[in-house]
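Handout for the seminar on molecular recognition.
Each group receives one record of this type.
Step one: identify the two inputs.
Step two: read the structure output and locate the region that could contact adenosine-3'-5'-diphosphate.
Step three: write two sentences on what you found, then compare them with the reference statements printed after the record.
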Amino acid sequence: MARLDVTEVFHGISFPGHLHTQDSLQLALKFTFKDTDILIASYPKSGTTWMQEIVTLITSRGDPHLCQTVPNWTRAPWLEQHYFATLLEASSTTPRVITTHLPHHLLVPVLQGSKAKVIYVSRNPKDVVVSFYHFHKMANFLPEPGPFPGFLNRFLEGTLHFGSWFEHVKGWTSHTAAINNLLHITYEEMSLDLRGTVKRVSSFLQCPLVEDEVNNCAEHCSFGSMRDNKMSNYTLIPEGIMDHSKGAFMRKGVIGDWRNMFTEEQNQYFDSVFASKMQGCALEFVWAKSNGEETP
Ligand code: A3P
């Protein structure tokens, strides 16, 4: 199933047809979660693959075997993608780890009655848009990004594939979110305190680890380890689908790369759109406090 140029529009949001069909998207909204399931939810480029690695390592008590022998999309498949049912059927791992980029409002009905544990990962949207821009250049299943200014505008309008970052984050983190068992972790927390993140996630998953196991988890999900792990760096994906000559999936892995891309004018415009779209949102932005940045 190549469908590299196909776009599926579902509930007003565009999805790459290479990975999604109307059927696979519909099926996601009818999925029955088990109480033992772990769901990783995120807007693309927010640290999804990193959290998949962290969760796999925690549930393996720091043993890297699973991370180093099974691709991330098999050990934590995307709920809405067309291969999901096949992978889940073939998988015997407990607990099941499932990933999604769907917005909160589409999944609330199926999550509401469930005790599945949800980990929502967010990232400074300025770094998200820069990472997404570079990813569009290498991912042949995403549209040509064109020049950065236009791409940035489409991100702010919410018309890129996977929809609006603002609606995604507000939906999953709002206090009225009707989902039990939700842990919100930011990319910035992961970056600034990886061991602390491992402990926080392991305690949320009720999988307490001893110090050595925490150290092993942190070691095997460091940027360097994941960049060199072909089960998480996407180099297993053929060139025709991801053009590795145009960039690496594990690109920079840092906070604040947006500064190398944004003009002062773009930054000011971004801040004004951010202030207006996030008005009334009670979310505390960790990146605004911990790394000395005044704005997102
Ligand atoms: P950059 O493009 O800024 O480098 P996702 O998995 O949601 O698509 O996110 C991909 C982003 O997470 C990329 O960001 C990638 O480098 C970064 N990333 C993945 N693993 C990481 C790790 N262990 N440490 C830091 N960043 C990581």
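Reference statements: Residues 7-292 form a domain with the Rossmann fold fold (CATH 3.40.50.300). The chain is about 45% helix and 10% strand.
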